Amino acid sequence: MDLTGLLAFNVLSGIATFVLITLGLGVIYGMMRIINLAHGEFMMLGAYTTVSAVGAGVNIWIAMLVLPPLVVGLVGLVLERALIRFLYGRMMDMMLATWGVSLGLIGISSTIYGNVVRGVTAPLGGFNIGRYGASLYSFVIILVAIACLVGLYALLRLTKFGLILRAAMQNPRMAAALGISPSIVYMATFTLGAALAGLAGGVLAPISGISPNMGAAYIANAFITVLGGGPAIIAGTGIASVIFGAINQIVSFVANPVLGTVSLLVFAVIMIRILPQGITGRFFRNSL
Amino acid sequence: MSAVLEVSGLRAGYGRVPILGGIGLAVEANSFVGILGHNGMGKSTLLRSLMGYLPATGGKVSFQGKDITNLSTTARAKAGLGYVPQGREIFPALSVMDNLRMGCLLAKGEEARVIEDILEDFPRLRRLLDRPGGALSGGEQQLLALARCLCASPSLILLDEPTEGIQPSIIEEMAETLHTLRRRRPFAMLLVEQKLSFIQACAERILILQKGMITGEIPPESIGDANVIAEFSGMA
Questions:
Q1: What is the predicted ipTM?
Q2: Which one of A40, A64, A146, B20 has the fewest CB atoms closer than 10 angstroms to its CB?
Q3: Helix A2-32, helix A182-204: angle, nearest 10
């Protein structure tokens, strides 16, 4: 019974982690069709923002939840204006460019922080599920993931900004004829995606080894989840995260983490073979 | 009367293929001008170029006395140019209501009010408000595209082959609606069409477009005479 409770808790936090690492990539890929190979490095920047801020004596919650999205959002904004916007519609060039950005960010952070693994102490302590100990911090991850999904849904569905975003993504030329500047919409979307990646980096900082290369650990899972989720960003990310997060955690728990990753990849390959458009390409097609 | 749109020597094309070979025309304020031409004569290209999707490779476009030849599509829309493209270009995943709200971005009045007013003129859309735009029939989409454009109260509407693939009842409804609307609030329209009856029902002047050039104008007194029009446009 205790074991079941612990497993359920781990599965939940695993799912939440998938949501967090995927959502920023999902926004940029889902709305703009840009394959952002620097997504992992955006997360890395978020994590380093937390490390630096905590080191400077900033309150840990602000260092995790507020500063990383602001800093990385700003980096995304500058990159979009300086580089990305010249490459819209050129998928290969865009991949090369974002890959270059990713290498550049790794280089810069290696120079500044050195090639060592750092950590941030998780706030909150532990609690017991029967005989087993679990981290209270996992609740934070779960709550932030839910808040991100709900917040993004509300932004897209209930605000004028969200309406403009959805319209411009469906038909940028027509949106321009109605007075929208697609260039500004793309800028805002890329910034939003970068900020979400930064937030993920900040929130996951206390449970990650923070190093310049940490992005590589996330990017594969993030891409699998985006592709598996399909065109609907929120529903797709949510559903794919539930499936992949659960598989990963359960197999890791029963066997070991390596098998967990292997089974996740095998399942993803089979699923994408059956549903090439992703889950929301076939089901829940009218969701967001 | 002053011209709301003046085009002189407009050239445009796709890549190195020239389509428009020096178009000259003027649309007077509050008048409806029709351009008649076959497929491939450059009708849609002309409107796309006027809307700023295609860069002009020569010539000049003035809108309300201002040179807009090099303005972006967005800037032209803000200046008061409305566009109802061929194929309607409804946002398929947005509801009819949200499509109309997009049309209100440049509206002068309050959004809810503007939409309420436009629904008075397009009663057929009222029961479809919650439907996704992509689920509407071609005719309903055409009405929606027109309504969406009108929400912003443009001073000139560019209307591209609105009758293509539309059932006759909606074509009549559209012509009537346009006339009703202009009585209440004046606006000018540049309509390109290959369907004679619709252009006759709507336009006060009819120009002929052939191979990227305006080759003639049908005398106003002959607009009701299908034989004369057929002769002029070589459609007999």
A1: 0.89
A2: A146
A3: 160
> How far apart, in Å, are the Cα atoms of A76 and each of A137, A186, A187, A216, A219?
28, 11, 9, 18, 17
Give the Å distances, CA to CA, from A147 to A9, A140, A144, A197.
18, 10, 5, 14
Contact at 8 Å (CB) between A173 and B73? yes
Side chain identity, residue A178: L
Q: How far is the CA of B145 from the CAs of B49, B117, B160, B205, in angstroms?
A: 19, 16, 11, 24
Q: How many CB atoms lie within 10 A of CB A253?
A: 16
Strands (E), chain A: 126-129, 132-135
With an 8 Å Cβ cutoff, is B26 touching chain A? no
Structure tokens at B227: 């034989």
Interface touch A179/B101, C-beta < 8 Å: no
Asked if residues B53 and B129 have their Cβ atoms less than 8 Å apart, the reply is no
pLDDT > 80? residue A115:
yes
CB contact (8 A) between residue A178 and residue B85: no
The residue of chain A with its CA nearest to that of B85 is A174
Tell me, yes or no, if B93 comes closer than 8 A to chain A by beta carbon: yes
- Identify the CA nearest to B218 among candidates B33, B29, B45, B61: B33
Q: Which residue of A has its CA nearest to B145?
A: A174
pLDDT band at B236 (very low <50, low <70, confident <90, very high): very low
Threshold 0.90, pTM exceeds: no
Residues B110, B107: Cα–Cα separation, whole Å: 8
How big is chain A, counted in residues? 288
